[in-house]
Design a protein that fits this description.
Layout lengths: L2 H11 L10 H6 L4 H24 L9 H23 L1 H7 L10 H9 L6 H31 L1 E2 L2 E2 L3 H5 L11 H17 L9
Antiparallel strand pairs: 1-2
Helix pairs in contact: 1-7, 3-4, 3-6, 3-7, 4-5, 7-9
């Protein structure tokens, strides 16, 4: 499979959140603000791409009966590096994301791509599969996070988006958007729109 097809499949035709319904817990929890969504998306992308690449490199040397242990060791090492970098250079975001960075270790997207792709394909292909799935995950978080932040607080990345004149005419920020159920509703709408647009078939049309 070419890198182009790998990326198309990962991002669009088989998006890990929208169509495989993986990684939904973090998608519901961290998308209150766009900034949180961006950092979480980048973190998962780095982990899944790195773990895919490393596991593919050593796939022929991993005994089948301990492969899960090896996968978890590599994934947890990468997650710890990301977590320590956030603690050192982006402490406020580290607090905002709380345990969800650490829970990347058990994220179904990361484990799923390791099992389904990295252990059966070459390192470069596995790396790009990780990048594609990470971007697919991040795009969903960015879309949901943007809508929640705009409707919930009238801002985006700290900048006021909703004009003050609308508030003068009775516009009120939607408090529901600040709670996890809003992400669930928006994710359902997003899946419906993407399915209607022809995505989610797992292959190019």
């Amino acid at each position: 499979m070419s890198i182009k097809n790998i990326m198309k499949t990962s991002i669009w035709y088989s998006n890990p959140v929208a169509f495989q319904v993986l990684g939904v817990c973090s998608a519901l929890a961290v998308t209150v603000q766009l900034e949180n969504s961006l950092v979480m998306g980048i973190s998962l992308t780095l982990v899944v791409a790195g773990s895919n690449f490393l596991l593919s490199l050593i796939r022929n040397y991993i005994p089948y009966n301990i492969r899960i242990i090896v996968e978890l060791a590599i994934i947890s090492s990468l997650v710890n590096i990301i977590d320590e970098l956030l603690l050192a250079y982006y402490f406020e975001m580290s607090k905002a994301l709380s345990v969800f960075v650490g829970l990347i270790i058990t994220n179904c997207i990361v484990m799923g791509r390791a099992e389904a792709f990295a252990l059966a394909n070459k390192p470069i292909e596995s790396f790009w599969d990780g990048i594609g799935n990470g971007i697919g995950y991040a795009l969903v978080l960015i879309l949901v996070g943007s809508v929640r932040e705009i409707l919930g607080s009238g801002c985006l990345l700290g900048y006021k988006i909703i004009p003050d004149i609308l508030y003068n005419y009775g516009y009120v920020d939607n408090g529901l958007m600040l709670f996890p159920p809003a992400a669930f509703i928006l994710l359902g709408i997003l899946i419906f729109c993407l399915k209607t647009a022809g995505g989610g078939n797992g292959e190019e049309k």
